[in-house]
Amino acid sequence: MAATVKLPKFGLTMEEATINEWVVGVGEAIEQGQTLATIESEKVEMELPSPASGIVAEHLVAVGETVPLGTPVAVIVADAAELESYEPRGG
């Protein structure tokens, strides 16, 4: 089952963040808690941990793009079979 990764709130005043780097690329395996991306908000860089283990199926937000909290930023699927049948949302 695919897991949608949403931009979480890291600070009290955080309202949006910018994707600085995708640490794990599309098609690569990831473990729960592993850094998926680095993000920046209010001049503070943070790591965005993966909420699930699996394979990164899609990045929904481009590097350098700033998005509000709760925005879906990536999709993680359970395994290679699910990746093969995954239809990208276009991000």
UniProtKB/TrEMBL annotation:
It comes from the Bacteria. Signal peptide: none annotated. Residues 2-77 form the Lipoyl-binding domain. Keywords: Acyltransferase, Transferase. Its cofactor is (R)-lipoate. The keyword Transferase applies. The keyword Cytoplasm does not apply. GO terms for molecular function: acetyltransferase activity; lipoic acid binding. GO terms for cellular component: cytoplasm. PANTHER family: DIHYDROLIPOAMIDE ACETYLTRANSFERASE COMPONENT OF PYRUVATE DEHYDROGENASE COMPLEX (PTHR43178), LIPOAMIDE ACYLTRANSFERASE COMPONENT OF BRANCHED-CHAIN ALPHA-KETO ACID DEHYDROGENASE COMPLEX, MITOCHONDRIAL (PTHR43178:SF5). This is Biotin-requiring enzyme. It comes from Gaiella occulta.
